[in-house]
Amino acid sequence: MFLFSTLFSILLILVKKLAHRITYKSYCYEGSESYTVGQKIKKNCNTCECRKTAPKKFEFVCENKPCLIQPKLNDVINRGNYGWRAANYSFFWGRTLEYGIRYRLGTFKPYRETMHMNEIRTVDRRPLPESFDSRRRWPRMIQEIRDQGECGSSWAFSSSALASDRRAIQSRGRERITLSPQHLISCNTRGQQGCEGGHIDRAWWFLRNQGLTSDQCYPYTSGHSGHKGHCRIPRGRHKRFRCPSGIQDEQYRSTPPYRVGPSEEDIMHEIYNNGPVQATFRVMQDFFSYSSGIYRKLPVTNTNPTNQGWHSVRIIGWGVEKSGGRQKKYWVCANSWGTGWGEDGYFRINRGQNECDIETFIVGVWAKRNHLRRTRRRF
Ligand SMILES: *[C@@H]1O[C@H](CO)[C@@H](O)[C@H](O)[C@H]1NC(C)=O
């Protein structure tokens, strides 16, 4: 009798254990869902597989790639007092940081040669306003925010937009043409990498020698394909030709670009007198999640060179934010990530401290000569 009851309880324990294993232990859990061994899920940008990691232990084993949006980093930004706020962008969620650097930026670090462009220093020392906005000064002449999509082509977007802005301003609004970034991406191929990045000085060389057609003539397609595509504009300076879009158009050449002296005042005078400028700067991880305020890179940001890239934008104005008796100076910049990012596609960044090198590589074009003096360096 005793033996029987002992055997019975042992059996009961075994059955219970087995049932437990079947119904409970051999699953991985995520939220309210259960997964069996071998099933995969995605956690942000990493793929995780349900595995048996120890006897009776089942859990997800994940890749460990840095993600473009990191909720923890966003929390740090939004709880801290950094002067700007972070957002979880759905178009960046689930992507790796490497993807962001490769396909959302796309300007090569300016070489020494770029630094040898004609440098212009302003001799104009008239007082400047506390704030300035090109959009108000030159209404309907400043290019709107666009989206480069999944193509590292900021080099083409910033250059074509700047050439368009300057053209409109210099002609007092008579020549308002949106020049085609696709033309640059597909046809300016010498030493350039299309959707994998480009050099600013080579883009300007092309704008000067070949010129760009309009966006209507050669619409942007690389944002979806991620490839530069074949050049569909005849080489040489043909007067008028048939466009990829079917209309007739020509190519509009630009005058030489020049480098604006790397000082806050010089940059302000340049924008004030001649219009927006092109700036190339260092992008760290935290910049991708910027949603509003005055950006400055976080002290906690990983500054490892593999975790950053170079990007180019237009600076269109400046201003001062006054809060709590303190003044914070900023630049207003136009990005090329669509209007769903930042402050309707724009961002403000710390001014006067060369934040992320944004004041180092400034390019202008189509100058009015009277306020400017040329230095002897040749382009
Ligand atoms: C961020 O956004 C994505 C997509 O919109 C969403 O699936 C995810 O849960 C969000 N993450 C956080 C931490 O809010």
UniProtKB/TrEMBL annotation:
Record's keyword annotation contains Disulfide bond: yes
Stored Pfam families: Peptidase_C1 (PF00112)
Highest taxon, organism lineage: Eukaryota
Signal peptide, first to last residue: 1-19
Domain Peptidase C1A papain C-terminal stretches: 128-366
UniProt keyword Transport present: no
PROSITE patterns: THIOL_PROTEASE_ASN, THIOL_PROTEASE_HIS
UniProt keyword annotations, A-Z: Disulfide bond, Signal
InterPro entries: Papain-like_cys_pep_sf (IPR038765), Pept_asp_AS (IPR025661), Pept_his_AS (IPR025660), Peptidase_C1A (IPR013128), Peptidase_C1A_C (IPR000668)
Assigned protein family: Belongs to the peptidase C1 family.
Protein name: Uncharacterized peptidase C1-like protein F26E4.3 isoform X1
Name of encoding gene: LOC106468048
